[in-house]
Amino acid sequence: MEERAFGSAGDSVIIEDFLEGEEASFLAFTDGEAVLPMLAAQDHKAVYDGDQGPNTGGMGAYAPAPLVDAAMSARIVAEIMHPTVRGLAAEGHPYKGVLYAGLMIVKGVPYVLEFNARFGDPETQAIIPSWRAIWCL
Q1: Over the stretch 42-70, which tens digit does the pLDDT of each residue have?
Q2: What does the alpha-carbon distance between residue 32 and residue 86 come to, in Å, rounded to a whole number?
Q3: Per residue in 84-109, is it b (16+ CB within 10 Å) or e — as a string?
Q4: Helices vs. strands in the chain: H and E counts, helices first
Q5: What's the pLDDT band for 17 if we cut at 50, 70, 90?
Q6: pTM
């Protein structure tokens, strides 16, 4: 930063909190207004059992995620997904499609780690089979 190797990019610094909890992937369909959540999922990142070893690109996933019960799902929709969809529209960028929120659940409070405008893999592989029961495919 002192050498300005990246120009003005070093003019400000963001200090983030360390969030210790469990990650969950929360995907929803949106038409730019309504939000239709899917089952929450969790993926396995560590290479060995018991969350041991280095993180991988994904060792599989499961859904539903036990830490995202009906009450937590409703909270995520009300506090994160709807405000995001409304905020995008208010800024002139209405979004229609799949909205993926990577979350950290810390002592019952959901925090956003990332958003993606796509399905997540391998989480989606665990979520899609549930559609058969919902939509009678």
Answers
A1: 987 777 777 788 777 666 888 999 999 99
A2: 8
A3: bbeebeeeeeebeebbbbbbbbeeee
A4: 4, 8
A5: confident
A6: 0.82
CB of 21 closer than 8 Å to CB of 51:
no
Under 8 Å between Cβ of 67 and 24: yes
Please tell me the distance from the alpha carbon of residue 14 to that of residue 65, in angstroms, as a whole number: 31
Distance of CA 93 to the CA centre of its chain: 20
Beta-carbon contacts of residue 102 (< 8 Å; ≥ 6 apart): 23, 25, 112, 113, 114, 115, 116, 120
Return the DSSP state at 9.
G
**For residue range 84-120, what is the model confidence (pLDDT) as tens digits?**
999 999 999 999 999 999 999 999 999 999 999 999 8
| Rounded Cα–Cα distance for residues 81 and 30 (Å) | 9
- Give me 40's structure tokens: 């929450």
pLDDT grade for 33, boundaries at 50, 70 and 90: very high
Whole-number Å distance between alpha carbons of 110 and 67: 10
For 62, the token pair is: 């499961």
